[in-house]
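Cross-check.
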Amino acid sequence: MLTIYRCEYAWLPDGIERDVAIQVENGYITAVSPASSGGIARAGLTIPGFANAHSHAFHRALRGRTHNGGGDFWTWREQMYRVAAKLDPDSYYRLARAVYGEMALAGVTTVGEFHYLHHAPGGARYSDPNAMGHAVIQAAHDAGIRITLIDTLYLQAGVNGEPLSETQLRFSDGDADAWAERVAGIVGTRIGAAIHSVRAVPPSQMRPVAEFDGPIHAHVSEQGAENEACQALHHCSPVELLAERGVLQQGFTAVHATHLSESDIAQLSQAYTCFCPTTERDLGDGIGPARALHEAGAQLTLGSDSHAVIDLFEESRGLELNERLASQKRGRFSPDELLFAATKAGHDSLGWTDAGRIAVGQRADLVTVSLDSPRTAGSDPAGILFTATAADVTHVVVDGREVVADGRHVSLDVAGELREAVCALY
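Predicted model, tokenized:
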């Protein structure tokens, strides 16, 4: 089936153009040309679909429930574990489908799900050892977005080899070989592999992830305490340890990368680094050296991680605004660089190299943003990443299929499903 979208404005690889016709056939863009009459009119600015390169879908159940009192990442984590203990394949499917529906409404066309909620409470195996992963995959499909399931190795509770807590037992396969055997049975989507962190995987168990044929991710230096513990035991930083064990290779994604030395930054020059500004500020993690990594050659990507909000506009401007706070200078990243991080670079890091641009041969992922809302009215279309929010997305097409029309998901009552799925856990 051939469809032509007639866009008021479109953000193409060479910049924003007015009156653009985008021809779509069999889920791919087959022509981009000046618009004439005919086709489906799209008022506003049409941009490539966002890639949410780092997600923990079940963390969405914590939104708005963790802000009484003080604490830090570690106290927040205890609240997260209590939610994790309550999920099974059916309830996780319902929650994840609603979360991915929220992502679709926000213009996300691909999600990288950093998945470690593998087994039943206490570590017992379901009859399908990948029941939780398959639930998440089905949830993404039913919400209308693509998913890379980044299946995560998780074996211990701390750098020093502390045993897993009762809640953490369901995260673990026991050892890396058992993890690899289970992962081989996942079907239905693109698969990535992850080391949860140097806290959760001893160096002797990292080999199967390093040898994985696909995207490889890891949480890296999210907390200063992680660096201190790694230095004390292994006499090196987390980045250096991952490099020594062959995990840090071309195409590797370091998630957060908040507390890095100059040597760490140099070693990540051929990697992707995924920043999650809304989560990093929500948890008080700190501000990572995004500009220094970019200048060293690293490709920056963006994720919503714990889903304090799901809004890739906010993540994009958060990358720039955090840099302004740290450097006391403006214009650290251009709008084109921010959009590239939120779209093309993110898709590449998840293994979808044919997505993330409005160009011939790319997947037909088209997100249209209103230029007439109270937030965007009067602004230059090129400033949309600094003015719009997820609420300004009017239409979303994924692989040529319309998933969001006139600001509403075409098949899900997203707010109702979120309310029901979250409240069932409390």
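The longest helix spans residues 89-105. Residues 50-349 form a domain with the TIM Barrel fold (CATH 3.20.20.140). Passed to J.P. for a second look.
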